Amino acid sequence: MTGLATRLAVEQKSAEVTDWAARIGWVIGLALFVALVYWLMREGWKWRGTLQNDLPELPTAPDDPGAARLSLSGQYHGSTTAGQWLDRLVAHGLGNRSRVELTLTDAGLDVVRPGAADFFVPAGQLREARLDKGIAGKVLTEGGLLVVTWAHGDRLIDSGFRSDRAAEHNEWVDAVNSMIKTDSTEGAER
């Protein structure tokens, strides 16, 4: 039986390629198609940035933001128009995913992103912090994403972060929301 199987294996072989020009043409055509799709995606990203030109420059951290209440290292997943988790903002580098170092101080939220534009959210511009499951093309388990809502110009923006230690998310939500309540209570007393 093994002799028959060996003979069949030796006798069978692939058909020889006879039309190399057609195969090379198909490979080149496929490579050009992939390049075209990539170029169209890049142009769409640039066009979205052009449409968002009305977004003001991002604020930078003050020279002395004060003592850190909380700090976090993890991933920045992007920013969207508040309440519209698929409407990604790409102007000023807000659409670029990156590592992040977050620091919450009395002055606000300092977002340091190696390889991308850093920005600062003043305490008076913070609106809400919550746990969510997705933002602009990134979907996680329920509560796996820390989303901070903040005002910038005439827009409300949701920015999504994921800590390297997900257990920190609840502490961040409580701290940011209590900071917002304290700030609004002080503003009402004046």
TrEMBL record:
Pfam families according to UniProt: bPH_11
Domain (PH) ranges: 55-176
Record-linked InterPro entries: PH_bac (IPR057446)
Transmembrane residue ranges: 20-41
UniProt keyword terms in alphabetical order: Membrane, Transmembrane, Transmembrane helix
Domain of life: Bacteria
Name by which UniProt lists this protein: Integral membrane protein
